[in-house]
Queue: 2 jobs
Job 1
Amino acid sequence: MKKPNNTKAVLPVGHIQPTLQLSVQFAEPAQDLTRQRIRSWVKRTIDQAWLVYALDAQGLQVNLRFVDQTEGQALNTQFRKKPKATNVLTFEYGTQDDGMMTADIIICVPVLTQEAINQHKTFSQHAAHLIVHGTLHALGFDHIEEDQAQEMEALETDILALMNIPDPY
């Protein structure tokens, strides 16, 4: 596996930049997160994933929703059979006929906030990590097997380093 380096990605000649169609919903306020900031984190993630892994799609269409504890718990119970809220849920729908990968990403703000406190991170740093993590799931990455987890964590760490965010692990 080719590992990304910790420098700003420069796309090779002839490389097609992936398209990003992003919708952000704030069902729960998320401190100082702006749509522009969130978009930059998602865009950096897909650009780096395309650069390193040459993904076979035109881009990513994603809905990112920030939710409260009640909605987070209901979704996690319904779809993962776990009766508590989790930090991030990603629903990956695959590549559509137009070549766009599609997904929904749900981030539970109270869980994000508590984890940031417990892990001695800023809210923004942890939000960036969860958004990168969720976006990688939207692109088909997973961490079920140990080798998948190592690969995904390494990619997350490299992407966050490109954004001057410390290693979350």
Note: The longest strand covers residues 59-67.
Job 2
Amino acid sequence: MDTEARVASLEARLDALAQRLEASENEARTLRRVVAMSSTRWLHWIRLERAAQAQEEQGGWPASSAEWNERRTAYWTDVALQSGLVALGSLRVNDESLFNPNVTVGDDFHTNGLFVHGAGEVRIGAHFHSGPHCHILTESHHYEGEALPYDAERILTTVTIGDNVWLGTGVMILPGVTIGDGAIIQAGSVVVRDIAPLAIAGGSPAVPFAARDAAHYERLAGPGDRG
């Protein structure tokens, strides 16, 4: 093999080695991202690639899962505000959520993942908390028109949620529902009708099966700091 051929062969091998090294570095970088998060969150990173890119632009990947959680919260809270959501006080959106400009939330709003579907109005009181993957539907289709299964008309409704309401993981609230102050909705429930204040409801459809102690609730919900 002449010198020119040997040089060409060596260059090809170097190029292949460089490509393998680059791939290995990408794999290591991804692994570092996964390890930086808690073990229960690593799959979630795939859905949050947009957030990851934004965080890197702010100066590198977080050094710990706690730092990642705070930066993720800052990102999704900012996304919520950019959607036009009206916040009447403090706001903490810990994970991917979806709002529209017709959503108004009270002070101390806290969600781990809430999706508002449709252009209808949503009014949420103070000290709200939800688990992840909760959904609020605000519009439905007109099935009594001149087309099947429904026509092009959209029926917009208002969903109202009172103060101190807690939604468990995976709750779905249908259009037009009102949930009273202090109510608790069990994880995985589908709320199809109004829920009274202080009720603890669950199931599909959700029905009350217990209630908060009224005196205990009133003592905590009165004037002063809340825990």
Note: The longest helix spans residues 3-36.
